[in-house]
Specification:
heterotrimer; A: 371 residues; alpha+beta; Jelly Rolls; 2 domains; seven-stranded antiparallel β-sheet; six-stranded antiparallel β-sheet; 3 helices; globular; B: 667 residues; Butyryl-CoA Dehydrogenase, subunit A, domain 2; Butyryl-CoA Dehydrogenase, subunit A, domain 3; 52% helix; immunity (chain C); nucleus (chain C); Evolutionarily conserved signaling intermediate in Toll pathway, mitochondrial (chain C); ECSIT_N (chain C)
Chain lengths: 371, 667, 403
Amino acid sequence: MFHFRGVQLLGGPQSGFVLAQPFFLCFSRTSSVRVLQPKNLCSTCKYSCRYIHFGTSQRKIQVLDRVGVTPYSQRSVISYNKDHELLPHHPWNKAVTSRSISVAAAQNLFWEKDPKGGYGHKKKHSQKELIRDGLKELRTELIKWKDEVREKFEDDPIMVRPGDMDKIWILNSEESLEQWVVTSDKDHNEGFSSASLTLSPTGHGLFSGRINTQVPKDGRVKRAGYCNIRTIRPRKSFKRETYLDWSLYTHLELRVRGDGRSYIINISTAGYFDIMWNDIYTYALYTRGGPHWQVTRIPFSKFFLNSKGRVQDKQVSIPRDHVVSVGISAGDRINAPFRLEVDYIGVYWDPSHLETFAYEMYKVPKFTAGH
Amino acid sequence: MLRWQPVKFVLGHPSRGKVIFGHPGIGRAMLGHQESHIAALGVTRGFSTTTQDSCTSPQVQEARDDGPAQQPTTLKPTHQPFVKNLFLGKFDKKMLTFPEVLDRDQHELLHEMIAPIERFFIEKVDGAKIDKEASIPPETLQGLKELGLYGQQIPEEYGGLGLGATEYARIAEILALDGSIAVTLAAHQAIGLKGILITGNQEQKKKYLPRLACGEWTAAFCLTEPSSGSDAASIQSRATLSKDGKTWLLNGSKIWISNGGSADLLTVFAKTPEVQPNGEVKDKVTAFIVERGFGGVSSSTPEDKMGIRGSNTCEIHFENTPVPIENVLGEIGGGFKVAMNILNSGRFSMGSSGAGIMKKMIGWSMEHAVTRKQFGHHLSEFALIKEKFARMSVAVYAMESMAYITAGVLDSHKNADCSVEAAIVKVFSSESVWHWGSECLQILGGMGYMKPYPFERYLRDARVLLIFEGTNEILRLFIALSGLQHAGIELQSLIKKLRNPLMNPGFILGKSIERLRHQKDNPKLDLDLAGYIHPSLKLGADSLEYCVKRLQYSVEVVLARHGLKVAEPENQLELARLADCAIDIYGMTAVLSRASRSYCIGIRNSAHEMQLAMMFCEEAAARIKKRVKDIENGPFINSDSTYMKIADTLIENKGYAAEHPLTRVFW
Amino acid sequence: MMASTSLLCGRASSRTILTFLSSVNRTLHSPVSTQTLPRHIRRVSTSSVLEAARKEDDTQKTSLSIQGYFATKDRTKETFIAACDVFKDKNPHLRGHVEFVYAALQHMEEYGVHKDLEVYKKLLDLMPKGKMIPRNVFQVEFMHYPKHQQCAIDCLDQMELNGVMPDSESEEILMNTFGMYSHPVRKHRRMLYWMPKFKHASPWRLPESVPNNAFELAKLAVTRMCTVDPSSVISLFETKDVEDAIEDTWIVSGQSPTQQELLQNHPPEEPIKVEGPFRIFLRDQCVGYFILRAEAKPQPPPVKREYIDDVGSIKLWFTGDLEPDDMALIKPTSVHEQEDGIILAICATGTSGRDSLLSWIRLLVNTNPNLANVPVLFTQASPVGDVMTTGQHDETTSVKTVP
């Protein structure tokens, strides 16, 4: 019925998006984009990464090379001429990185170097700049810290009663919109979609733009067309990273008014450990369309695990006490404008919802599931 | 040179043969071992990958044994009677895999068949007219014949549709839209000609089935007599062999025979004298195929009934009707078994036809509730109305699941003994339809009570479901006693010792230690049923296990308490409790397996199905808990003996025994 | 020999082969130098090259035909399947099947079969059975026949992106081709785990393939939007039924008794607006719809806590204590009364033109007599959504999705 036309994985979780369709599977050989940079190639065994599929294939490539069979690599390097025709590809004229078969998201070797998976820009600041800016913010941070200390000693813990819904993000002012980051594939030169997060005429957050499935002709990208919004990570005073604790709640509730298209909700739970930096829990947001608002409640048990856009074989339920950010992505591969008005995103407790995880698991032959 | 394994055989299993395993979602779940926690490599059509690996579950063993796909599709595995084994505490975990019987072509064919039938019922069947005039117009009957509905289960070689149990049940759902038509067709094929299908020899089949399939002749089932309704063995019609030994002369009268007035072929049961080995002559029941054309067959005017008024029900008298000896169905003296087989085989479709009626009524009631406004709110906003709908929905879900799981088992196994399961489906469905149909009428309010609307007609038609094809009370006894009989064989020695406690003190001591947990209502749950269905249904699975263990315990209690006298009339209340427990357990199994399958394969509204299943399990478990407690407590604490005393007073008084409240003794 | 090099060249199209062959022709007289040729053809000997050159004409036909298979004018499912059959006939040993499959995958959309499972199965069936099944653990580990496995994976890829769910037969094909432990089979199984779970996950039902016909789409769209209120009634009108109607088109209108009541109680001085067209997407098709909207009424103040806490004064409706005015406090606001307006009706018309909307209003007056007294405005800007401009409207209704 509703098939996701999500864009294939396009690299890391920089904006918290899951670009793959929810059922687009985690096998690395099925990716579309060659994000592999020459420097990522390594001839040593890359077997140990948790979600690696690429690693094993890389090793296999080495072996194949020795055997003398040309590894297949056509898909990843496709050159276009002006008329969108496929040029004949000369295997022996390949670029440096032509040996691999699998073209997954940048899967790193022993460790994830970059929390943004290669998509961020590291700005260089001088020490003087950093100290100057830091001192400017010192006052506000101290006030925040004082509030936190007071809260710790004076306030009672939050009591959640059955049927309570607590709004976490209410998009009703410019200030509230500053908590969100908007990205699209155009920002990474991987497409031509545009998106924006503004205030709608009725005073709610409006995520709108246009999904453009046209693929840029840079030889790397095979499929394109995604836009996302994502909340910024909660921080305590002095910019300390913290988590949202939703362990007392069972559902994620959103009041939205969409245009009939399906969107993807991603909840990121990136933590301290690098292999979990790209853990995103995903589910679909189906919109009715029309002039009426809809309240969608999605149980946390329905969110499934992705990493860098790949649905994982070993599924776990979302660690609700460890939530970092929530994002909404538009990527259903329909080349048309989209419009999603969001009133609030909150969490809800339904005591009669006893399900812990909706995806059953099976015993399969050894070494066939992801490892 | 190429030594590739012929993997085809594991995958290309015949559709009917490995149905229970061969399911994308559930076949895998059979292994169910969650400790591995390795997700997401769905195995289609079961277990092909896993058979070659570490699995040790018996189901998979069986799959391996079944061999290459080149075997004919008629090879089916055998099936142990599920409910009978429940009385022993043995739970067949294969039942937690909802059967998928129809392959793609059969499924498409079935749905192509359904569309014209539905259209026929909507356009050409005027239920109100049939009810008012108490007869089905011949054009309607002709239409049914043209749709092939007169020969649904007759094999294609004789001109019928050759449908299996599942397809038959599906079509019964639609036929239920008009009760009279449903009963007419059921009387014709589910009981009337079933005898020939099951027990007939080739000549009889060749002679009669083609005409019955196309509807040229209608069949009827003649068993009930004025003096014997439920007690089929006490019929008084007699058949005597003529002097030349070539014909039987049939004498007797039968009452309340559906299709009696219009039937051309009757399956008649009569007593025939049989010489026993010790020289005694005993009367045994024999089944005969009697054509109206044989002469001496007369039927009276049709009876005027409360419901199913369009169905022709009348008395039939036989006066020296000559029946050739070729027309004896089965063996001489084996008629009782034939009758029981016939009745057992048709019962399960009542579940799906009941579900058909109820779904229709729920649709009407919901439309009414959503549009009608009282006190400024729609009826659908009131909690009392919502509760009715919710409970109704749970009951219908259970009915459907039980009917189709039984049909699936019948279709996918060879000679499966589903007599108890079919009885369970019949009891549950008939009572649910009557009760919840009445609640639908309640929601509809005054409109539900008015003759111009169809609602009351459905309720009237549904009342007979509790009476015919075996009254519900008899079926409860049948369920309980079949189970006890089956359990008794294994528990024979155990029960003997339990009934003689003073002679077996050591054993009793050991047994009471074993039973300590049961006496605290906390049996050990060791069946691991939760591993065979979706983890979100774990609570339901645990309730089911609890109920199975408690049933086993209560069986021991009942047998130990009464011994062989368990079948006596005065002990029926305990048997009824056991039967109700069995009904609830079977219901729980059916809903859990169906909900688990739906959730795993992503059927629409599967989360809703999970809720329905969990509600049914919760309520059923609560009911079973109380019943087992009542059995344990015995007749004095659970008020059985008091009720018996009250009933005895009424019998003495030939009616209500309390004096009128206005009676005065003195002024 | 030449054909085998075409195999080894991977997805080199026939034109590559052609250039190669012509270059071979040119260098026929000089010994083939190992530096100029790619590694994998290093061991080509002069004599075999000569031989191949002699046989050039025959091999040209077979190697050119990969492009030629999909060059027909008539692009339908039958011709696509015919192309596959022709390939099979011409190549009983299935040479170049990988290239063929890739070419076929590319051309599928032109032939309109990109969502057809049967065709995918036919393509997967082109792989030779049995030959590529690994026979020991090493072969399993090192992706036995990687190119072919990758080809199958790409085929499954395309299936997934087009939302085509595989079935047990395709698994059988893949198992017989690659064996149980191969990557295509594993991907297939993952597809069969995840795809069914999401196929029917949307609360709003849409048919398997959304119709192309605007009228059917409009009906689906309006039904979908009116699911908000279960008592909504969808009406189909023709502008022909309205006198003085200029346009001749259909109108699909949705309104519920609650909305009719709201319209009935609407004060005649306040104007109501017809706004639109807004976009609603039904899978990949877009429909423009209009709404009839009144300005939002202020929310009644919430009932005071003290009032609710006082249980000494419970009023019952069946004793007549509760006056209709009191009930207004407890009376719930319907789902149509939103903070940005009261939605009174929804419609979609064939032309989305001003005149059809006028006809719609006139037709609505039959069921809402009060509408005749209320001034109706046709506005462009709306708080409810982005109004599609005419240019946009055309563009989006003719949107072609990239599969």
